[in-house]
Amino acid sequence: MDIKNKIFVNAITAFNPLRIRLGGSLEDLVVYDVGNAVKECPKFRLQKNGLFGFSNGCLSQTRWDELNYLFNQTRALVTFSLNALYGKIASREDKLWIGEWNPENARQLMEYTLEKGYKIDSYELGNELCGSGVAARVNSVQYGRDIIVLKNLLRELYPIASTRPKVLGPAGFYDEKWFSTFLETTGPGIVDGVTHHIYNLGAGVDPGVINRIQDPVYLDKVAHTYRNVSRIVKKYSPKAGAWVGEAGGAYNSGGKNVQDRFVDGFWYLDQLGMASSLDHKVYCRQALIGGFYGLLNTTTFVPNPDYYGALLWHRLMGKEVLAASHDGSPKLRAYSHCSKSKPGITLLLINFSNSTFFHVVISVYPFQKLSERRSQREEYHLTAKNGYIQSDEVLLNGTPLQLTNSSDIPLMEPILVDSYSPLTHNCFRVRFSGFGQDKNEGPGSNKDLTIPAQKTVTFKDRKKDQNWFRRQFSKQMNQDNDSNDIDRATAVAAAAYAISSLKDLGLPYQREQPETSKISSKGKKESTLSIQEPGKGTIKSSENPDSTVPATAATHTKKPEKTLLPAPSFRKTGSTLEMELNGSSKVGRTTSKTEVVAKPLHDKQPSHRYDTGTSTLKSDLPTTVKPPPQPKRQSSTGPGMRKAQADAWEEAEMARVQERYDKQMATILDWEQKRKEKAKRHAVKSEGKLEEKRAKALKKYRTEMEYIDQVAGGARAKAKEKKRKDQLKVKEKADTIRRTGALPKTCFCF
């Protein structure tokens, strides 16, 4: 596939960012040809006795470089699925592979990836090997041990937890017993995302697929799978989120002329709403490209209708999930989230009916308050061309969505309507409606939350020197490695200047731990969405959030010595969907925290010094360096003598400048090496403590389980023995009755 195709690149970039999972059925046959990892790099070929009818294949170093160039260019978040059968052998038992996973080839790929500076968001192990498997299967206990090996490998290669890729698994169809044993084996803190696959529409060749897509009662059946996965994740690994790692609707490449058409949006958007409301964090659509269920056309790369539905969801639906239900026709679906890029609520309405339109009236408490200055709402209507649901063209507010002449994704602008006007939801239509934006607020606007201005600290005493220096190296610098590279370079340059200056002054420059401040946001929202269909019921949605968002920042409580710095601001960051659902999406209540990142104090700073805007470090620094001695005056004042004096003075001064520079560079290098060694020791020590703590917790858990088993086993044995004795007594009495013919007497006590 041509991964340099302009349409392909633009389609990925438009999500900013899109999560891409690189994996699938053949991943467990792939070896990685990086460095001297493998002797041969074979291509896939048909093989009757191979998994899925194929031989082993190879990912070449060149192709890996090309893929990572694409990911970097499009700012994609990458989940890479590893070969989980590497080192295992097929047993005689049906589809079962035995033995331990060999991580050496994966290690070589990761080491090369680190060396090249490529960023991988997460690693997943194997594809559809859980439960009864598809073409192969692995025992749940052994798979849990293999996942622990993967986690330890990542801990070794990425000692700093904040930069370490996540671990995902098991990437297969849900089997309660298998999933439970797997998560029990790993224990908490190993798996970061529990991934499962969904294909709830049946086989792609089944002509009934199109009818199932339009049947909301049938679509509801998969909800129990979402609930069960969420429940078991909370039970065994509560810090890990439930992910839909792969969902294509109909398996075997999807339904022809169905899943690449407008009608598939009813299934897709309904699944996104259902998964988020049932506490799933990520929804990965099968596939970005390939098969009939691809978001992009396999040959032309032109987006299919579902691509635009996914893009609207990604841009409009925020992390906080609200409850939405109604007593009317099941042909109307309603899902509600807090808006993603502005205050307010986004409501998704899906009309499955081909003959009924719904009259929707919104009258909710928060909007009555906001209506004084927010009198309009945004609406996005998705419909099929000419009302034909199997059309491959989709209209947004009546306008066809088509690529521009430069192969860019078209603008997706809303229509603005009066907030008090009712919604008329016509047949076979999808609608996103946003409520609560300002009159003067454009569709893509974004407001910042600010904290009080930080205060400038001068170099007049040692404590203030340390506080300023600490602020340059506070944890803010590592909150977002992607967006803060320029700020990091500026701060490093400023810190280097500070180190040399402090060294010249004889001041200590030890780093202190940054203080932590909190931004509290407490507000009560009680909203009711009244959605009426003639003669039917209503839809209601409510939220009562109470969240505290921690933001790391160095603070100083003393009065400012000179000037006030501009106030840094915090902004909600975008989600990472394809589709990233995020949020802890419990129905009826918001429980997820808003992610914040610190904006740079100055967007543009010179790289050679730290400029506060009103004063510079140089002017603030008291200097104890003596001025250079003035050259002695000569008795002659001729031009030749003055030139000689100037040359001699210049040469002496240049020598001093070079000497000072050499000393500064040596000081910076010494500081850099010491701090790196200290940071590495600290990271290793912290990891060791965490590992020891996890081992103790796991040991305690196993001890408790053994104790419970022992007590339960003893109780069972005792009950069994009592049963045996009671049965003997009954038999003895029965024999007596047979001999004497008299029944035993029964005593009644009062």
UniProtKB/TrEMBL annotation:
<protein>
    <recommendedName>
        <fullName>Remorin C-terminal domain-containing protein</fullName>
    </recommendedName>
</protein>
<dbReference type="GO" id="GO:0005765">
    <property type="term" value="C:lysosomal membrane"/>
</dbReference>
<keyword id="KW-0378">Hydrolase</keyword>
<comment type="function">
    <text>Endoglycosidase which is a cell surface and extracellular matrix-degrading enzyme. Cleaves heparan sulfate proteoglycans (HSPGs) into heparan sulfate side chains and core proteoglycans.</text>
</comment>
<keyword id="KW-0458">Lysosome</keyword>
<keyword id="KW-0472">Membrane</keyword>
<dbReference type="InterPro" id="IPR005516">
    <property type="entry name" value="Remorin_C"/>
</dbReference>
<dbReference type="GO" id="GO:0009505">
    <property type="term" value="C:plant-type cell wall"/>
</dbReference>
<feature type="compositionally biased region" description="Polar residues">
    <location>
        <begin position="612"/>
        <end position="622"/>
    </location>
</feature>
<dbReference type="GO" id="GO:0005576">
    <property type="term" value="C:extracellular region"/>
</dbReference>
<keyword id="KW-0325">Glycoprotein</keyword>
<dbReference type="InterPro" id="IPR017853">
    <property type="entry name" value="GH"/>
</dbReference>
<keyword id="KW-0964">Secreted</keyword>
<keyword id="KW-0732">Signal</keyword>
<feature type="domain" description="Remorin C-terminal">
    <location>
        <begin position="642"/>
        <end position="745"/>
    </location>
</feature>
<comment type="similarity">
    <text>Belongs to the glycosyl hydrolase 79 family.</text>
</comment>
<dbReference type="Pfam" id="PF03662">
    <property type="entry name" value="Glyco_hydro_79n"/>
</dbReference>
<comment type="similarity">
    <text>Belongs to the remorin family.</text>
</comment>
<feature type="compositionally biased region" description="Polar residues">
    <location>
        <begin position="539"/>
        <end position="550"/>
    </location>
</feature>
<feature type="compositionally biased region" description="Polar residues">
    <location>
        <begin position="572"/>
        <end position="594"/>
    </location>
</feature>
<dbReference type="Pfam" id="PF03763">
    <property type="entry name" value="Remorin_C"/>
</dbReference>
<feature type="compositionally biased region" description="Basic and acidic residues">
    <location>
        <begin position="600"/>
        <end position="611"/>
    </location>
</feature>
<dbReference type="InterPro" id="IPR005199">
    <property type="entry name" value="Glyco_hydro_79"/>
</dbReference>
<dbReference type="GO" id="GO:0004566">
    <property type="term" value="F:beta-glucuronidase activity"/>
</dbReference>
<feature type="region of interest" description="Disordered">
    <location>
        <begin position="509"/>
        <end position="646"/>
    </location>
</feature>
